[in-house]
Input
Amino acid sequence: MLWHELTIHTTEEAVEMISNFLHEAGAGGVSIEESGTLNKERDTSFGQWYERPLNDIPEGQAVIKGYFAEERNLNDIQGELVPRIEQLRTFDIDPGSYRFEQQTVNEDDWADAWKQYFKPQRVSERLTIKPTWEDYEPTGSNEQIIELDPGMAFGTGTHPTTSLCLRTLESVIKGGEEVIDVGTGSGILSIGAVKLGAKHVLALDLDPVAVSSALANTSLNGLEKQITVKESDLLSVLDAQDPSLGVKLPVQVVVANILAEIILLFIDDVYQALVPGGVYIASGIWKNKEQVVEEALVAAGFRIEDKHRDEDWIAFVARKG
Output
């Protein structure tokens, strides 16, 4: 089967939004490659080492590829994307001097090729992400393995926002908490939370593909009884008082690894969903949105307890007053 490949050269800052635009345009898969330069600061706290640059993408830049069915017209898709990308500037997200490339590829050339670059990776003191097709043995009794098959629609869990969020969860989860994971994607944060000791997680996502992926990965890790996956626009499912949510409201922890613009939309809803003293982990925040998110959290009644950083990304640990 042939697919159209639409490549966008842009900035790391704009990756999350443009990737989402491609999904909304009907992409059957999206791949992201960020700078592999050795000039950027890298986390080596868990034994990672970097022998040489992984690619020649300039620092701060990224290459995003969207794959579309053969019958789709890439010129039409590109025309729809341009105004949406330009609009990012009004939200203080700089896509840079972005440019497009188009080509047609065979499905076998891309559907599985990316898997050779996804290896088991230790992302925190206790958590290691392991692709299902790789063999790996834990190095100690404290190490927890997250089995993951992200498919072409989701990341491998090693993007700074995800690994940052997992490390933040590790600092927050003490054991026995009920958790809500908003925008679960592949379900990786929900799985990580249970592996760290959470009692039950309600995993929510608006995208039916994400719901399917989260269900599949939950099953891969044997956590069907501890993770409930629901399709929901942010926290709207809570309004229905659905008895099958798997958690009792209010909960002890809410985590959201999504864009700052989305986080700003439902801060008050998160506050209501938490017990007094409950913790909100808000991640996926680029450095230029740090102040506005912090101000909104404080205005809603949260106390900023900590900030965790990875490169230019920030995760807030905010406690309900």
